[in-house]
Amino acid sequence: MKRILLIFPPQADPTMPAQPLAALQGYLKQQFRDLEIRVVDANVEAYDYILRGTHLAGLYEQVQKNRRRLEKYGLNGQEDYYRALGRVEASGPHVIAAVDWAKKILRDKTAFYDHENYYFASSIVTRALQLVSAAHYPASLDIGGFSIPYGIDRLVDILAAAKTQNRYLDPFLTYYRDRLYPEVESFSPDMIGISMSYPSQVHQSFILAREFRGRYRQTPCIIGGSMIPVMKEGLPAAEPLFKWVTAFVTHEGEITLAGLIREWRRGGDLARAPGIIYLDGGGKVRETAPQYPPDLDLLPLPDFTGYPLHLYLSGQTVLPYSLGRGCYWGKCAFCCQDILSRAHPRKKSPHTVSRQLRLLKEQYPFSHLYISDEGFDAETLATLGDIIAGERLGIRWCSDARLETSWQPQTFARAARGGCVKLWFGLESFNQRILDKIGKGIRQSAVSAIIRDCRRAGILVHLYCMFSFPGETREEACATLRFLLENRSIIDTAAFNVFRLHRYSALYRHPDRYPIKLLSPGPEQEFPKDFPYETTAGMTAEEARRFCYILREHPAVQPFMAPYVLSKAHILLLAARNPGYRDAILQMAQAIKDRPAGYLPPAAGNKSKSIRKRAPYPGKINICRFLCDPFAGGKEETGGETTGQTPVDILYIPWQDRHFALPGAKITFPR
């Protein structure tokens, strides 16, 4: 065994590299000097292939055919789809002409930071992916996710998606045919490893595994990643998957994959390989015990060799980096990270972090780092700041973190001096009773002081909020919203999610401690991650979903969600250059509302006059009155363009179909 191919399949964030394969490549190169390794980030390559004017032109023809077919044979309940086709058809020629320009802008280290260029380029990409989704309806693809009408919790759906491979439904199949499969054929691997880290990668992983097994029957195909622990209990009943997959990696991949390679070189006895699930010679699914988790200080530097750094849709390279593995807190009732991490929490020593960051800076042209851990304590992140400042590495970074009282003005100052740009905190609720039920270990009285100290140090703040934790009332949910609105001058962004009952969470294991009744999952659900439930107190799940839906559409909340910024990597880059990027983009959108139809800002690569001529920019931008009560539902009134003062300054941007409260707007919510 001389050649191993490592693939990161669609769909994931195409604005920065994924770390799992870099960690595997570094370890395998350390263990096997004679091993030839090729890493293929099929995710970013697929986005680059799809977001081309020539490819979109073919999809646009399909959209026109679909619309004409509906008009000829009747809508038959597909009114929403017909409207979606109409929207993308209206903007299609403009998008087709501008999409290659938009990619150049997002990859240009100068034009990316011009807010006008960035806004238009991100809008073009957003609309282009809407065109892709309409052409492959009911599939849906954007920067943040991908779905097709096959579930990932049922074996029958996974098998159907992999066997059918409908190119009219799956936008990635043409990329596989034209680019990926020829590349794999030319490399002729002796082993193929697939990283399945997100739910959006499940179907694509098995599509690739089935295709590779058909093409290379003697080549073992291994699937690992954080989705395997989620699916682990259902794998013994999923024997058909083992026709395509040789083994599933159940724990951390470095030692397991190295063990598999050694066993294959000895003759292929999978029973001796650590931490896998496989099908033995008698047709029975078996699992081997994992080895000890690796000491993170002994692991080599992540190796990004082979990653197409020029293809990521970001103005500068943002590299992911991990300070440790597992969650050191591990007490939140809704979370299952202790299972997903598959080992006890560990972190790298400051010496290792310092050495690795110096080596990364020497090998790769980057100055921005995304700390990819679930969240660290204040002292660890402050120490990271000390290392970067002391070594004069010139790195700007962001990270998830815990809201805890160990955050003091001096710890924020240390992180800021070392390049910290933004911290993503898990608030969940601004109600002490709910915080105690969750097990967050947060005092409500300390939250305001912590985020103010963070902001005073020059670090932007993001807050994760969760509604409908079992027992939460409507009034308690509203308290969280009011806290955000009253502090929006110091909160950069926020996320609003509805509680979901995760398998392996403490709440699932001990439902008797909460006002909740577990329901049985649907029939033939071999891989359920989220379980159905009913609450016996507080809001129901349906009430919470309605609450969140109205909340997300409200103009006062839209700036918190930053829908005009494509990814965390972009937030890091834009905020590092200008902490007021959010308000600057909104004010820019207000300033361009009177630009002529079809306008595109001057930027690198924008020399084609045909972009302006082929189709108008779809819609003008209006100031409008928005009367909406997020607590009880409401109605939108858009009276068209106005020139006088309005009670609330609201910006409606048809290109993104969003309403924004302009910076400084005063919005009152009922108490």
Describe this structure in words.
This protein has 671 residues and is an alpha/beta fold. Among the domains are: 3-43 and 178-287, Rossmann fold; 318-565 and 567-577, pyruvate-formate lyase- activating enzyme, CATH 3.80.30. Helix content is 40%, strand content 15%. It has 23 helices and 22 strands. The strands form 6 sheets. The protein has a 7-stranded mixed sheet, sandwiched between helices. It has a 6-stranded parallel sheet with strand order 10-13-14-15-16-17, with helices on both faces. β3 and β4 form a beta hairpin. The longest helix is centred in the first third of the chain and has 29 residues, at 79-107. The protein starts with a strand and ends in a 10-residue tail after the last strand.
Give the end-to-end Cα distance, rounded to a whole number of Å: 68 Å
CATH homologous superfamily annotation of the domain at 318-565 and 567-577? tm_1862 like domain
Number of strands: 22
Shape: globular
> So, CATH architecture of the domain at 318-565 and 567-577?
Alpha-Beta Horseshoe
